[in-house]
Protein backbone atom coordinates (compact mmCIF):
# COMPACT_ATOMS: atom_id res chain seq x y z
CA UNK A 1 0.00 0.00 0.00
CA UNK A 2 1.37 3.36 -0.92
CA UNK A 3 2.06 5.58 2.08
CA UNK A 4 0.28 8.89 2.02
CA UNK A 5 1.70 11.49 4.36
CA UNK A 6 -0.88 12.37 7.00
CA UNK A 7 -2.77 15.63 6.80
CA UNK A 8 -0.36 17.90 8.59
CA UNK A 9 -1.41 21.13 10.24
CA UNK A 10 0.91 24.02 9.68
CA UNK A 11 3.68 24.05 12.24
CA UNK A 12 5.66 26.38 10.04
CA UNK A 13 5.50 29.29 12.44
CA UNK A 14 8.88 28.62 14.03
CA UNK A 15 11.48 31.26 13.42
CA UNK A 16 14.51 29.38 14.69
CA UNK A 17 15.71 25.88 15.38
CA UNK A 18 15.71 26.85 19.08
CA UNK A 19 11.97 27.52 18.99
CA UNK A 20 11.39 24.15 17.33
CA UNK A 21 13.55 22.45 19.97
CA UNK A 22 11.45 23.94 22.76
CA UNK A 23 8.30 22.45 21.25
CA UNK A 24 9.73 18.95 20.84
CA UNK A 25 8.39 16.38 21.27
CA UNK A 26 5.46 17.10 19.01
CA UNK A 27 4.60 13.40 19.33
CA UNK A 28 1.09 12.32 19.95
CA UNK A 29 -0.20 13.64 16.67
CA UNK A 30 0.16 11.72 13.46
CA UNK A 31 1.50 14.80 11.71
CA UNK A 32 4.68 14.76 13.80
CA UNK A 33 5.28 11.05 13.52
CA UNK A 34 7.80 11.32 10.69
CA UNK A 35 9.71 14.09 12.48
CA UNK A 36 10.00 12.02 15.65
CA UNK A 37 11.10 8.91 13.78
CA UNK A 38 13.71 10.63 11.65
CA UNK A 39 15.21 13.11 14.11
CA UNK A 40 16.20 13.29 17.74
CA UNK A 41 16.11 16.95 18.80
CA UNK A 42 17.70 17.83 22.13
CA UNK A 43 18.43 21.12 23.85
CA UNK A 44 20.10 22.31 27.01
CA UNK A 45 22.22 25.00 28.59
CA UNK A 46 26.02 25.04 28.74
CA UNK A 47 27.61 27.34 31.34
CA UNK A 48 31.00 28.81 32.13
CA UNK A 49 32.53 31.57 34.24
CA UNK A 50 33.87 34.57 32.36
CA UNK A 51 36.35 37.03 33.84
CA UNK A 52 35.44 40.70 33.73
CA UNK A 53 38.34 41.34 31.32
CA UNK A 54 37.24 38.56 28.96
CA UNK A 55 33.58 39.58 29.24
CA UNK A 56 34.45 43.18 28.37
CA UNK A 57 36.54 42.09 25.38
CA UNK A 58 33.79 40.01 23.76
CA UNK A 59 30.64 41.55 25.28
CA UNK A 60 29.78 38.47 27.34
CA UNK A 61 28.03 38.08 30.68
CA UNK A 62 30.30 37.04 33.55
CA UNK A 63 27.88 34.26 34.46
CA UNK A 64 27.69 32.83 31.03
CA UNK A 65 24.88 30.61 29.73
CA UNK A 66 24.59 29.33 26.19
CA UNK A 67 21.64 27.45 24.75
CA UNK A 68 22.73 24.52 22.62
CA UNK A 69 20.49 22.41 20.39
CA UNK A 70 21.50 19.15 18.78
CA UNK A 71 19.67 17.40 15.96
CA UNK A 72 20.56 13.80 15.23
CA UNK A 73 19.52 12.19 11.97
CA UNK A 74 18.45 8.80 13.27
CA UNK A 75 18.34 7.21 9.81
CA UNK A 76 21.65 8.30 8.28
CA UNK A 77 23.48 8.86 11.55
CA UNK A 78 24.61 12.45 11.05
CA UNK A 79 24.39 15.06 13.80
CA UNK A 80 24.50 18.86 13.98
CA UNK A 81 24.96 21.25 16.92
CA UNK A 82 23.48 24.75 17.01
CA UNK A 83 24.55 27.59 19.30
CA UNK A 84 23.85 31.22 18.35
CA UNK A 85 26.66 32.45 20.58
CA UNK A 86 29.21 30.93 18.23
CA UNK A 87 28.55 33.74 15.75
CA UNK A 88 30.54 35.95 18.18
CA UNK A 89 33.51 33.62 18.09
CA UNK A 90 36.63 35.54 17.03
CA UNK A 91 38.26 34.44 13.77
CA UNK A 92 42.00 34.89 13.79
CA UNK A 93 42.77 33.20 10.46
CA UNK A 94 41.43 35.62 7.86
CA UNK A 95 42.14 36.49 4.24
CA UNK A 96 40.65 38.48 1.35
CA UNK A 97 36.84 38.39 1.08
CA UNK A 98 36.79 37.81 -2.67
CA UNK A 99 37.46 34.46 -4.28
CA UNK A 100 40.67 34.68 -6.26
CA UNK A 101 40.57 33.67 -9.93
CA UNK A 102 44.07 32.36 -10.76
CA UNK A 103 43.33 32.34 -14.51
CA UNK A 104 43.07 36.08 -15.10
CA UNK A 105 39.40 35.95 -15.91
CA UNK A 106 39.69 32.81 -18.02
CA UNK A 107 42.68 33.79 -20.15
CA UNK A 108 44.70 30.93 -18.67
CA UNK A 109 41.81 28.55 -18.09
CA UNK A 110 42.04 25.03 -19.56
CA UNK A 111 38.30 24.56 -19.27
CA UNK A 112 37.56 27.68 -21.35
CA UNK A 113 39.56 25.93 -24.08
CA UNK A 114 37.87 22.59 -23.52
CA UNK A 115 38.19 21.46 -27.16
CA UNK A 116 41.99 21.33 -26.95
CA UNK A 117 42.83 21.39 -23.24
CA UNK A 118 40.53 18.73 -21.78
CA UNK A 119 40.60 14.99 -22.35
CA UNK A 120 37.77 13.20 -24.12
CA UNK A 121 36.11 10.01 -22.92
CA UNK A 122 36.56 6.91 -25.08
CA UNK A 123 32.85 7.17 -25.89
CA UNK A 124 33.14 10.83 -26.90
CA UNK A 125 31.58 14.00 -25.49
CA UNK A 126 28.03 14.95 -24.61
CA UNK A 127 27.37 18.54 -25.61
CA UNK A 128 24.55 21.03 -25.15
CA UNK A 129 24.39 24.76 -25.87
CA UNK A 130 25.77 25.75 -22.46
CA UNK A 131 27.63 22.67 -21.20
CA UNK A 132 29.89 19.89 -22.41
CA UNK A 133 31.50 16.78 -20.93
CA UNK A 134 35.19 15.90 -20.77
CA UNK A 135 37.09 12.98 -19.36
CA UNK A 136 38.81 13.62 -16.05
CA UNK A 137 42.52 13.62 -16.86
CA UNK A 138 43.52 12.47 -13.37
CA UNK A 139 40.98 9.87 -12.30
CA UNK A 140 40.15 8.64 -8.82
CA UNK A 141 37.41 6.38 -10.05
CA UNK A 142 37.20 3.55 -12.57
CA UNK A 143 36.05 2.63 -15.14
CA UNK A 144 34.51 6.06 -15.86
CA UNK A 145 35.35 9.44 -14.35
CA UNK A 146 34.26 12.50 -16.26
CA UNK A 147 33.76 16.24 -15.97
CA UNK A 148 30.77 18.33 -16.95
CA UNK A 149 31.80 21.88 -17.75
CA UNK A 150 29.84 25.06 -18.11
CA UNK A 151 30.86 26.71 -21.38
CA UNK A 152 31.26 30.00 -19.53
CA UNK A 153 33.98 30.73 -17.01
CA UNK A 154 32.48 32.34 -13.88
CA UNK A 155 31.45 29.51 -11.52
CA UNK A 156 28.90 31.55 -9.54
CA UNK A 157 27.21 33.27 -12.47
CA UNK A 158 24.87 30.85 -14.22
CA UNK A 159 21.25 31.03 -15.34
CA UNK A 160 18.55 28.38 -15.38
CA UNK A 161 19.27 27.07 -18.88
CA UNK A 162 22.98 26.79 -18.20
CA UNK A 163 22.29 24.64 -15.13
CA UNK A 164 19.71 22.56 -17.02
CA UNK A 165 22.27 21.86 -19.74
CA UNK A 166 24.85 20.87 -17.10
CA UNK A 167 22.40 18.34 -15.63
CA UNK A 168 21.18 17.05 -19.00
CA UNK A 169 24.78 16.58 -20.16
CA UNK A 170 25.42 14.64 -16.97
CA UNK A 171 22.50 12.29 -17.60
CA UNK A 172 23.72 11.80 -21.18
CA UNK A 173 27.21 11.04 -19.88
CA UNK A 174 25.91 8.40 -17.42
CA UNK A 175 24.01 6.69 -20.21
CA UNK A 176 26.94 6.75 -22.63
CA UNK A 177 29.33 5.54 -19.93
CA UNK A 178 27.00 2.68 -19.03
CA UNK A 179 26.63 1.64 -22.65
CA UNK A 180 30.43 1.53 -22.88
CA UNK A 181 30.78 -0.26 -19.52
CA UNK A 182 27.61 -2.25 -18.77
CA UNK A 183 29.28 -3.80 -15.73
CA UNK A 184 29.45 -0.37 -14.06
CA UNK A 185 26.07 0.39 -12.47
CA UNK A 186 26.76 3.00 -9.77
CA UNK A 187 26.43 6.63 -10.92
CA UNK A 188 27.29 9.64 -8.76
CA UNK A 189 27.37 13.38 -9.40
CA UNK A 190 29.36 15.87 -7.35
CA UNK A 191 30.03 19.56 -7.89
CA UNK A 192 32.81 21.27 -5.97
CA UNK A 193 32.58 25.03 -6.44
CA UNK A 194 35.56 26.99 -5.18
CA UNK A 195 38.85 26.01 -3.63
CA UNK A 196 37.36 25.65 -0.14
CA UNK A 197 34.91 23.10 -1.54
CA UNK A 198 37.69 20.98 -3.07
CA UNK A 199 37.75 22.35 -6.62
CA UNK A 200 41.12 22.46 -8.36
CA UNK A 201 39.89 24.68 -11.21
CA UNK A 202 38.09 28.02 -10.89
CA UNK A 203 35.87 27.39 -13.94
CA UNK A 204 32.45 25.96 -12.98
CA UNK A 205 32.39 22.19 -13.41
CA UNK A 206 30.89 19.04 -11.93
CA UNK A 207 32.33 15.55 -11.70
CA UNK A 208 30.49 12.44 -12.83
CA UNK A 209 31.50 8.90 -11.97
CA UNK A 210 30.22 5.48 -12.97
CA UNK A 211 31.75 2.66 -11.00
CA UNK A 212 31.37 -1.01 -10.23
CA UNK A 213 31.80 -0.23 -6.54
CA UNK A 214 29.24 2.12 -4.98
CA UNK A 215 30.33 5.10 -2.92
CA UNK A 216 29.49 4.42 0.76
CA UNK A 217 27.13 7.38 1.16
CA UNK A 218 25.09 6.26 -1.87
CA UNK A 219 24.97 2.73 -0.54
CA UNK A 220 24.14 3.92 2.99
CA UNK A 221 21.17 5.92 1.69
CA UNK A 222 19.83 2.99 -0.35
CA UNK A 223 20.28 0.55 2.52
CA UNK A 224 18.77 2.93 5.07
CA UNK A 225 15.76 3.63 2.83
CA UNK A 226 15.16 -0.10 2.42
CA UNK A 227 15.51 -0.74 6.17
CA UNK A 228 13.20 2.18 6.91
CA UNK A 229 10.45 0.77 4.71
CA UNK A 230 10.82 -2.60 6.44
CA UNK A 231 10.59 -1.12 9.92
CA UNK A 232 7.82 1.36 9.08
CA UNK A 233 5.26 -0.61 7.05
CA UNK A 234 3.42 1.50 4.56
CA UNK A 235 5.96 4.32 4.73
CA UNK A 236 9.00 5.25 2.70
CA UNK A 237 12.01 7.15 3.93
CA UNK A 238 11.69 9.81 1.26
CA UNK A 239 8.03 10.51 1.92
CA UNK A 240 8.73 10.81 5.63
CA UNK A 241 11.79 13.01 5.02
CA UNK A 242 9.42 15.36 3.20
CA UNK A 243 6.70 15.03 5.85
CA UNK A 244 9.15 15.73 8.68
CA UNK A 245 10.31 18.97 7.09
CA UNK A 246 6.74 19.95 6.21
CA UNK A 247 5.87 19.46 9.87
CA UNK A 248 8.81 21.61 10.94
CA UNK A 249 7.87 24.31 8.42
CA UNK A 250 11.05 23.87 6.38
CA UNK A 251 9.61 22.49 3.13
CA UNK A 252 8.80 24.25 -0.13
CA UNK A 253 6.42 22.44 -2.44
CA UNK A 254 4.43 23.98 -5.25
CA UNK A 255 1.07 22.64 -6.49
CA UNK A 256 1.57 20.65 -9.66
CA UNK A 257 5.32 20.37 -9.26
CA UNK A 258 6.93 16.92 -9.05
CA UNK A 259 9.85 18.35 -7.05
CA UNK A 260 10.25 19.88 -3.61
CA UNK A 261 13.05 21.45 -1.60
CA UNK A 262 13.77 21.53 2.11
CA UNK A 263 16.13 23.32 4.45
CA UNK A 264 17.73 20.38 6.24
CA UNK A 265 17.19 19.99 9.98
CA UNK A 266 20.50 18.14 10.23
CA UNK A 267 22.81 19.67 7.63
CA UNK A 268 26.03 17.85 6.83
CA UNK A 269 27.67 21.25 6.47
CA UNK A 270 26.32 24.77 6.65
CA UNK A 271 23.10 25.83 4.86
CA UNK A 272 22.19 22.41 3.55
CA UNK A 273 19.26 22.35 1.12
CA UNK A 274 17.90 19.07 -0.22
CA UNK A 275 16.07 19.03 -3.54
CA UNK A 276 13.96 15.97 -4.32
CA UNK A 277 12.56 15.19 -7.76
CA UNK A 278 11.95 12.55 -10.38
CA UNK A 279 15.19 12.58 -12.35
CA UNK A 280 18.21 14.64 -13.39
CA UNK A 281 16.34 15.69 -16.53
CA UNK A 282 13.07 16.57 -14.79
CA UNK A 283 12.25 20.23 -15.49
CA UNK A 284 10.78 20.63 -11.99
CA UNK A 285 13.91 19.16 -10.37
CA UNK A 286 16.22 21.31 -12.47
CA UNK A 287 14.23 24.42 -11.64
CA UNK A 288 14.21 23.83 -7.89
CA UNK A 289 17.91 22.98 -7.86
CA UNK A 290 18.51 26.28 -9.63
CA UNK A 291 16.30 28.13 -7.13
CA UNK A 292 18.16 26.50 -4.23
CA UNK A 293 21.62 27.28 -5.62
CA UNK A 294 20.68 30.91 -6.29
CA UNK A 295 19.30 31.11 -2.73
CA UNK A 296 22.65 30.06 -1.28
CA UNK A 297 24.71 32.23 -3.64
CA UNK A 298 22.57 35.38 -3.89
CA UNK A 299 20.57 35.41 -0.65
CA UNK A 300 22.98 33.80 1.81
CA UNK A 301 26.29 34.88 0.26
CA UNK A 302 27.73 31.40 -0.29
CA UNK A 303 30.66 31.65 -2.70
CA UNK A 304 31.87 28.08 -2.29
CA UNK A 305 29.67 25.00 -2.13
CA UNK A 306 29.33 21.28 -2.75
CA UNK A 307 26.48 19.51 -4.53
CA UNK A 308 25.96 15.74 -4.43
CA UNK A 309 23.17 13.99 -6.33
CA UNK A 310 21.97 10.58 -5.17
CA UNK A 311 19.73 7.89 -6.68
CA UNK A 312 20.55 8.79 -10.27
CA UNK A 313 19.09 6.16 -12.56
CA UNK A 314 20.74 4.93 -15.70
CA UNK A 315 18.52 3.08 -18.18
CA UNK A 316 19.56 -0.57 -18.37
CA UNK A 317 21.22 -0.39 -14.97
CA UNK A 318 19.76 -1.64 -11.69
CA UNK A 319 21.69 0.94 -9.69
CA UNK A 320 18.58 2.12 -7.85
CA UNK A 321 17.50 -1.45 -7.10
CA UNK A 322 18.48 -1.59 -3.41
CA UNK A 323 16.17 1.28 -2.60
CA UNK A 324 13.63 0.33 -5.22
CA UNK A 325 13.14 -3.09 -3.68
CA UNK A 326 11.34 -1.45 -0.79
CA UNK A 327 9.24 0.90 -2.89
CA UNK A 328 5.98 0.26 -4.63
CA UNK A 329 7.73 0.90 -7.93
CA UNK A 330 11.15 1.94 -9.16
CA UNK A 331 9.67 5.25 -10.28
CA UNK A 332 9.05 6.20 -6.64
CA UNK A 333 12.75 6.28 -5.72
CA UNK A 334 13.42 9.98 -6.17
CA UNK A 335 16.61 11.65 -7.23
CA UNK A 336 17.96 13.65 -4.30
CA UNK A 337 20.38 16.57 -4.50
CA UNK A 338 22.16 17.87 -1.44
CA UNK A 339 23.75 21.34 -1.45
CA UNK A 340 25.97 22.71 1.31
CA UNK A 341 27.95 25.89 1.76
CA UNK A 342 31.63 25.41 2.54
CA UNK A 343 32.00 28.50 4.63
CA UNK A 344 33.31 31.99 4.23
CA UNK A 345 35.94 32.66 1.60
CA UNK A 346 37.37 35.22 4.02
CA UNK A 347 38.26 32.48 6.51
CA UNK A 348 41.52 30.59 6.12
CA UNK A 349 40.35 28.08 8.72
CA UNK A 350 38.88 24.86 7.32
CA UNK A 351 35.22 24.14 8.02
CA UNK A 352 36.17 20.47 8.38
CA UNK A 353 37.68 19.72 11.79
CA UNK A 354 37.89 16.74 14.08
CA UNK A 355 34.17 16.93 14.78
CA UNK A 356 33.46 16.28 11.12
CA UNK A 357 36.39 13.98 10.36
CA UNK A 358 35.91 11.67 13.33
CA UNK A 359 32.61 12.59 14.98
CA UNK A 360 30.26 12.46 11.97
CA UNK A 361 28.84 15.69 13.35
CA UNK A 362 29.05 19.34 12.41
CA UNK A 363 28.30 22.83 13.69
CA UNK A 364 25.16 24.51 12.43
CA UNK A 365 26.31 28.05 11.72
CA UNK A 366 23.20 29.09 9.82
CA UNK A 367 19.78 28.39 11.33
CA UNK A 368 17.71 26.19 8.94
CA UNK A 369 14.84 28.67 9.27
CA UNK A 370 17.14 31.34 7.86
CA UNK A 371 18.01 29.01 4.98
CA UNK A 372 14.30 28.38 4.45
CA UNK A 373 13.54 32.11 4.23
CA UNK A 374 16.26 32.48 1.61
CA UNK A 375 14.72 29.59 -0.32
CA UNK A 376 11.31 31.28 -0.27
CA UNK A 377 12.81 34.57 -1.42
CA UNK A 378 14.58 32.82 -4.28
CA UNK A 379 11.41 30.93 -5.19
CA UNK A 380 9.43 34.14 -5.45
CA UNK A 381 12.08 35.57 -7.74
CA UNK A 382 12.36 32.61 -10.09
CA UNK A 383 8.95 30.97 -9.82
CA UNK A 384 7.84 29.49 -13.12
ZN1 LIG B 1 37.31 29.01 -17.74
TrEMBL record:
<protein>
    <recommendedName>
        <fullName>ATP adenylyltransferase</fullName>
    </recommendedName>
</protein>
<dbReference type="InterPro" id="IPR036265">
    <property type="entry name" value="HIT-like_sf"/>
</dbReference>
Amino acid sequence: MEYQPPAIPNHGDHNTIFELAHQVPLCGSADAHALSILYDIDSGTARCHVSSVLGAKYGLAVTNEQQVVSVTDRVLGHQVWYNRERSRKPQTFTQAEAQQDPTEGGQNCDFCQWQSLTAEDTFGRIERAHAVTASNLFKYCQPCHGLVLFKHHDPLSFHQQQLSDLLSCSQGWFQAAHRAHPEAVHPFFIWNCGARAGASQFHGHAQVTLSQVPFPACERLSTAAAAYASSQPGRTYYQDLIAAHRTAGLLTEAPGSSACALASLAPTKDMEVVVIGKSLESADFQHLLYVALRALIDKLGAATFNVGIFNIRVPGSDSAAPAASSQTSTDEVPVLARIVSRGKVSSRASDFGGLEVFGQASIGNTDPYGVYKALLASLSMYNQ
